[in-house]
Amino acid sequence: MDQVLSYYPGCSLHGTASEYDASTRAVCELLGIRLEELEDWNCCGASSAHAVDHELSVLLPARNIALAAKADKDLFIPCAACYGRSKVAQAAMTEDAGLRAKFGEAVGMEYRDGVAIRSMLDLLADPDVLQRIRAGVKRPLRGLKVACYYGCLLVRPPKITGAADYEAPETMDRVVEALGGTAVPWSYKTDCCGGGLVLGRPDVVGRLIDRLMTRAVEAGAAALVTACPMCQGNLDTRQKDAAQALGRDYQLPIFYISELIGLAMGHPKPEAWWKKHLVDPRPLLGTI
């Protein structure tokens, strides 16, 4: 192991997105990256706290940042929503002395920072990590055509995330190509899937999902790959309803990028991850 990161799984990766957690941990082990789960972490408030209480939406993730500062390591957050809220909180705490004062009163600890918060994209964009992925491929994903879907939260807003290519990101595309697969070019990489509207406006969600699915198929993709639990869950669980409502015929597996990396790098039991997928990826994977 030559790299150690503080690891914040957040609520999703300990629950509905447990396959993202398992595949992320497995891939990091294959890459020589040790993840040390942040001790006594708390929910960051995504995705509702910011809609009801601004201070709470900042103080919740700020506490995790302060815990990571004690560990003195970069903070790795694979969940796009948790990453986004943590980056927003970090900026707010840096700019607002009043919030820092309230943090001490509310949390009972001093706010410390100086922590680099890294998403899955940030980790995979590291040239050394990409080289290790490329060198570690044992089962090339030849013939697998995927649409890389980044969603709303990983690269936007750019003034918070620091993403230079927020309109047309390429990080996952480069990883897919390094794995031997094909990342199809398409123009919907960062369009919204409607994840935050699932309960309130399912009609809107259905139309958004249908647009993503039909455009991915038109681009030649047989699957989508993402690094966001909300996007994966929304697209995986609701595409069937969208297809039926709009008279479509698509059934695309929705992978986490960590799952494809683990598969290509020869993880011994990737099939354990597929059990959580409603659209079974095994028929597709049997063709490559």
Key traits:
288 residues, alpha/beta, Glutathione S-transferase Yfyf (Class Pi), Chain A, domain 2, Rossmann fold, 4-stranded parallel sheet, 8 strands, 50% helix
How far from one another are the termini?
31 Å
What is the CATH topology classification name of the largest domain? Rossmann fold
> For this structure, what is the CATH class of the largest domain?
Alpha Beta
Principal-axis shape equals: globular
Mean pLDDT: 95
Tell me which CATH architecture of the largest domain applies here. 3-Layer(aba) Sandwich
Describe what this molecule looks like in 3D:
There is one protein chain. With 288 residues, this protein is α/β, with parallel strands linked by helices. It folds into two domains: 3-118, Glutathione S-transferase Yfyf (Class Pi), Chain A, domain 2 (Up-down Bundle), CATH 1.20.1050.140; 138-285, 3-Layer(aba) Sandwich (Rossmann fold), CATH 3.40.50.11810. The protein contains 15 helices and eight strands. The chain has helices at 10-13, 18-30, 49-52, 54-71, 80-95, 97-107, 120-125, 127-136, 158-161, 171-178, 202-218, 229-246, 257-264, 271-274, 282-285, and strands at 3-7, 33-37, 75-76, 117-118, 145-148, 182-183, 223-226, 254-256. The longest helix has 18 residues, at 54-71. The chain is globular, with a radius of gyration of 19 Å.
Summarize the entry for a quick read.
The chain is α/β, with parallel strands linked by helices and 288 residues long. It is built from 15 helices and 8 strands.
Record the SSE blueprint:
Elements: E1 3-7, H1 10-13, H2 18-30, E2 33-37, H3 49-52, H4 54-71, E3 75-76, H5 80-95, H6 97-107, E4 117-118, H7 120-125, H8 127-136, E5 145-148, H9 158-161, H10 171-178, E6 182-183, H11 202-218, E7 223-226, H12 229-246, E8 254-256, H13 257-264, H14 271-274, H15 282-285
Parallel strand pairs: 1-2, 1-3, 3-4, 5-6, 5-7, 7-8
